[in-house]
């Protein structure tokens, strides 16, 4: 018994998943996800153009 043979055996290749037909609900869901991703990318681009919203953080007075 060698040390390499322990554990569960894995198949070399995963079986291919069968292609299922997309109905109207699936198409609408994919379209909605694409729109959300696009809106998120636009928001990120818009936010990166501006500077930071908060400047300075905690402000300390000169007194001790």
From TrEMBL:
<feature type="compositionally biased region" description="Basic and acidic residues">
    <location>
        <begin position="27"/>
        <end position="45"/>
    </location>
</feature>
<feature type="region of interest" description="Disordered">
    <location>
        <begin position="1"/>
        <end position="64"/>
    </location>
</feature>
<dbReference type="Pfam" id="PF09072">
    <property type="entry name" value="TMA7"/>
</dbReference>
<protein>
    <recommendedName>
        <fullName>Translation machinery-associated protein 7 homolog</fullName>
    </recommendedName>
</protein>
<dbReference type="InterPro" id="IPR015157">
    <property type="entry name" value="TMA7"/>
</dbReference>
